[in-house]
Amino acid sequence: MSSDTVHSTSQSYERLRSGEIRLLRIFPSEFNGASIDGSLEVFTLVAAPDYTAISYAWGDRRSISSISINGEATPITTSLLHALVTLRKRDEPIWIWVDALSINQCDVDELNSQVHIMDTIYSQAHTVAMCLGPECRNSEQAFKVMKAVRERWNPENIFHSMVSRERSQILSVVRLFERSYWKRLWVMQEIFHAKRVTVYCGSDYMALDDISIVCDYFKYYSGTIENWARTLCFTPQQAYHTILWKYYASAGAS
Fold first, then answer.
1. Using an 8 Å Cβ cutoff, are 198 and 206 in contact?
2. Which one-letter DSSP state was computed for residue 12?
3. In 4-121, beta strands by DSSP E
4. Helix-helix angle 167-176:236-253, to 10 degrees
5. Mean pLDDT, residues 139-166
6. Considering all CA atoms of the chain, what is the largest pairwise distance in Å, rounded to the nearest integer?
7. Taking the complete model, does pTM exceed 0.85, yes or no?
8. Which end of the chain is more exposed for a tag (fewer CB within 10 A), N or C?
9. Does 127 have pLDDT greater than 90?
């Protein structure tokens, strides 16, 4: 869970009762550059509409943006803004649960009670969105490589085909798994009981189930991974870092 508190002084919260959560309704826009406009509403967990629970990295808390919630200008971190823009739909509202806005961070009792039901919040979400941040460092290429592996997965020949690709293509996947998101302590709790998980990076996205298969590919060849790393001019640590994500992926996909 991200403890992002920059918004709390400008948004008024009514105390949540037992079994209640706040959901952020993001209104649609056809333009990616349009400002985010939404409303916070309270529901019981048993009667909540289908919602997406966001899992994201805090980012630089000094990098602040602003969105409109219930008609009020509300400051949030730029990393959260990227996540909201990524998930906003073009033609219909979307319900979102995100700790920074759905919990009154200034109310210690509420914070503790919501943390206590965090597993339920994420497990009852229609989907969990793992938001890695904006596109950068060849992330688009990384998704293309992973999708190619997923579509062609065959332990008899895919490895040789993949290694024959340009080093930059493989390195793009390694770079994707080096993002600060994967170092978060809350990742396992947020995805472990999820019904479905989708990984987003800029405009690219892929089901965690499919990324788990890609990680199976790396894990399958872990016996020769150091030689593979040297062939591609990686350090073994970089290569192992990619393989170890298999443990996260398998937990979320199970």
1. yes
2. -
3. 20-26, 37-44, 52-56, 64-69, 72-77, 94-97
4. 60
5. 70
6. 59
7. no
8. C
9. yes
